[in-house]
């Protein structure tokens, strides 16, 4: 891992949910903190998300899920990463994810969960600390 290279994060909006304001806010905060952000846009499949992360040599995938399908979508992304021998890519997410589902997500390999009201500096700091690279704003 090149510690001088900026952190690369794929921000993805899986499934049929069409609301992406939160994903764009997170993407902007990460970008403003000096990270390279690849925003995939709306209606991405888990396969598309993983393919993008691998093609972009991403360090992390952040998924925004508001549809209630978080358990299924995160599980599929993590399975696809493992199958592609890319499970070193850190997976985190946010959106409307009930607290009672957090442990199940952590157990399947999700490293961080950010729900509405999370401050962007908390999210940025978490990505920096978890991915293990130091990135300063440009």
Topology:
Blueprint: E1 8-12, H1 21-32, E2 36-39, H2 46-55, E3 60-65, H3 70-83, E4 90-95, H4 99-108, E5 112-114, H5 120-131
Parallel strand pairs: 1-2, 1-3, 3-4, 4-5
Helix pairs in contact: 1-5, 2-3, 3-4
Please give a handful of descriptors for the protein shown.
138 residues; alpha/beta; five-stranded parallel sheet; globular; disordered C terminus
Give a brief outline of the structure:
It is built from five helices and five strands, in the order βαβαβαβαβα. The protein has helices spanning 21-32, 46-55, 70-83, 99-108, 120-131; strands spanning 8-12, 36-39, 60-65, 90-95, 112-114. The longest helix is centred in the middle third of the chain and has 14 residues, at 70-83.
